[in-house]
Fold these 2 entries.
Entry 1:
Amino acid sequence: MTSSVPSAPQRIPRARTRTRTLAAAAAGAGLLVTLLAVAGPASATPDPGDLTPLGTGRSAAGPPATGTVSSEIPGQDEIVHSRNITPLANVPSANPAVINSDIAFQGRYAYAGSYDGFTIYDIGNPSAPRTVTTVLCPGGQNDVSVSGDLLFLSTDSSRSDDSCNSVSQPATEKSSWEGIKIFDIRDKKNPKYIKSVETACGSHTHTLVPGKRGDVYLYVSSYSPSAAFPDCQPPHDGISVVKVPKKDPRQASVVGFPVLFPDGGNPGAPTNPGVSQTTGCHDITVLPSKDLAAGACMGDGILFDISEPERPRVIDRVQDNVNFAFWHSATFNERADKVVFTDELGGGGGATCNEATGPSRGADGIYDITGRGDQRKLVFRGYYKIPRHQADTENCVAHNGSLVPVGGGRDIMVQAWYQGGVSVWDFTDSTRPKEIAYFERGPLSTDKLTLGGAWSAYYYNGHIYANDITKGLDVLRLDDWRTESAKWVWTDRLNVQSQPDYH
């Protein structure tokens, strides 16, 4: 059913300047250093927001490989995976030309965003997921989260208005709209659009933060201001905080814009060549039980206190001006003594998992959290990158993932790598991370760089769910002695950027 809704890391002092860029390609010392550049807030996303997938098509599943990791690149569209991964199902994209994005979960339902809106899947039977409804509401990235009867959708592209019938419009127009859309999802077959909240520079991503008395806060991450954009003015050195009252969600509004980078953040190039200038955050993960948050903020990684949700307070900040290009997302381990930060080298549109790029560029950075209270520090320990080289025609880099809740002091997560597929890896030893399982498809194209692959891969109630940019929803089963304990952990919801206590 389709329904249309009404309208080596270090702490470094920082300086500030800024343009709304997405990319500049550079090569040096045999390493590919790519940052995508596009003008205007509608396209100011290092994710492949306004790129058009070329040469894509339906999945043509080849015979699964069940051997160990191979140095050979699979054939076009061929599915390969480790012995401990079993592909259970794939729900093909209704429109492979539209980019699929993030996923949230609640009960037996998965809510998958796309640049066209969002789709609700019934995953009560993981081997046979079915589409309940698709809501048409165009606007990148349409990252999604759910809370009770509410669904929140991020719009980070300049639109003619806040309706679901809007069209693209230049950010230089004062009437342009970007921000948060709120839907009532009590009726899964017929979600209703009930409220919008405009936020400065739009909403590239957002993070749910529980407040008192059942109210909800949204930390809205956005970036790339310009003096030419009336609703996205520099300096854009913080995040928008939206309060959603439980008693009346239609009264949701921006209640603050806390400044996280009073000195401007990482200046980027030319001071730090190949590194993004910090002008806001890309993604924030909160750990409500510990009043803690980790922010991936373009050129900086931060740790901050959220005991007062409207007034988050930075505890520590790090930079990696050697191997990181764009701090993209963050994940705490279960004991809250580590953070994994991802680097989105190439903006998600580059071939950065090839031999030329090497094992440290475009990798995850693993940081231990040392000390207590305001004396806590982020201490770099190591990098992780998938050990399988990808073709020069495959966009590949570290992207969205979640913990596999194994408990017992072991740290394992599952992660999407675009056309690098889905990787399950163990970082119990922060200095020696290793892959323990994988799933991927061969290149979408063998003769030109083509956008595709897994955008998000999350572990939820015993299975891995991955939203593939062009192929749709994949469901995988993981059978490994190191992850068996996770099968006994069940939760009634999962918004990955609002990390739960599993044990």
Note: The first strand starts at residue 2 and ends at 4.
Entry 2:
Amino acid sequence: MAQLSKHPATPAPTAPERETTGHLMLRGYIVLTLFATLAHTAVFNLLGSTGAVVAMAVLTAGILGIWIPAIVHRRPTRFPWRRLPWVALGYGGFALLSVIWSEWPSATLVTWALWLAVTINALFAATMLTWQELVRALSSALKWILGLSLAIELWVALVLRHPILPNFVTVPDGKIDPHIYWVRGNLFNDGRIQGIVGNAHTLSMMCLLALMVFGVLYASKARRRGALIAWAIVALILLYKAASATSVLCGVAAGVVLLIALLMRGARRPSQRTAIYVGSALVVVAGVAGGFVLREQVLAAFGKDSDMTGRFEIWAKVWERAITHPVIGNGYSSPWVPWDPGFAGWIVDHKLTVFHAHNMWLDVFFQLGIIGVLLMLTAWAALAWRAWFFAVDRPRWDLDAKRPYSPLSLLPTMVVATLLVEGLAESAPIMLWGWMLLVMFSFKIKAVPLVGVGLDERSSVLARGEQARQVP
């Protein structure tokens, strides 16, 4: 039975803090916006292009309706304006400026509006949630993607027994290219599945991201760890069935970064860290060199040809067009709008107009030239630098140098490694969910560099410590 002490130095017991209904609703809304961004192609396949635009506009309007009054109520001077990811925002500003010389101005404005909505979504989530809440929100959004992907694959394979097209359009008679389908119904055969997102590679990246999020939550001893294990098994099954070679390489990169970070955390002296850096660099260089020499065997092991599924041809065509405007580019459009005359029928794969360059750096060079590449390179380098030391440096805000590491601080650096490797074969890191993670983690690490102890929270902790020392 609990006893209440009347000693003046002992504070009276209080009930544990509970989340208010308003904050729970806020978290739920952020989960919805994260889902809409991570699974934007699912919204597109369900509602069509117009419906997807309306859905994103409504969600963004809701964010602004919540966020602006919150900033005003807390006084704008308290908002961490200086902590914003200004280089990433500068990239967006230059993208908007490119409408002046863009060869596809309407596509520039449309896709920039999408960029703005995704950026607002990322900044809002990073501002309103703590680190623990943010990772839990990502976990919830990814669970919805995995659960709906498994459900729709089961429905198509067992109930409908035939593939479905985007927007549930009636499947016409005759042979159709499988790449046009939303879900092919390959869950119980040797084919690749696409899930609710309608793309095998995107589904595999969602599974990989989910495994990282579930892993750090499990390591941090979150509640319902058994459920996390179950969801991780679902993610592994879907990852296997999606069969994306790029995601496998991304997973290897994330695993290597995780291993190095854990070794760095275990180092006790600066010389040990130096040895880990040197040894890791040698291993990575040797691995990259070996992969380059044995590239044909590696590609064959993943079922790919030496042309990397037509990417060399795509890169050649994009480079030929990009080099005509090397400084400022041809105009922003991420993704490429397939019905715009500047892109329609330019690069066609499986009777579909390709909507990105399948390489983030080439895509940026094509759109915004060397200026855009430098801005994007700076934004990713800044995030990679901060995320690395966020993961390997022991949390400190006073003289105590023995505080334990948080498993949650490992997530950003694993995500950065994953997206940078993916960017070699895809353009996802510069748009939609990839861009959202860049902005969200960049802002969150700058504004709250310690898990569980942010700028305001740190002041509260120190104030409570000072009050405790003054008790007679």
Note: Strands lie at 348-349, 352-353.
